[in-house]
Amino acid sequence: MVRANSRLNHSVRLVVGALALITLTEPAWAILGVWRRAAVTTAVVSTAVVTSEATAANAAASKEAAAAASAQQAAAASAASAQQAAAAAQTVQKSPQQKLQELQSLYDQKLISAADYQAAKTKILNGM
Questions:
Q1: Is 35 helix (H, G, I), strand (E, B) or coil?
Q2: Do residues 27 and 63 share a domain?
Q3: Is the pTM of this model over 0.85?
Q4: At what angle do helices 96-108 and 114-126 cross, to 10 degrees?
Q5: Are residues 41 and 76 both part of a single domain?
Q6: How far apart are CA 28 and CA 74, in angstroms?
Q7: pLDDT tens-digit map of 54-91
Q8: Do 87 and 97 belong to one domain?
């Protein structure tokens, strides 16, 4: 992007310099071996080319910005759907039988003590 801008700035300087030479010379004079009328035509065409290059660079930059915005929106939508899925998973209620089976599994694997098992079992049964 910086390289394109420096090329564009150089082209603009050349065009401005050519236009300055054209306006300061007599109609019958030659500028760098080119008659004034030919130089005017060249300057007008060069200006059109520089303008079209600038337009193309702006269009490319706007396409890049649109693509970035699109990617950002897609990421936000993905994050929102992940949050909804997590919320839906949390809202699923386990039955007391499922809770007791999980508790028994923890006790069988010796991940909880007998006292913890009894306390949790009592809590689940009281919640029914």
A1: strand
A2: yes
A3: no
A4: 180
A5: yes
A6: 64
A7: 676 677 777 887 777 777 887 777 777 777 777 666 66
A8: no
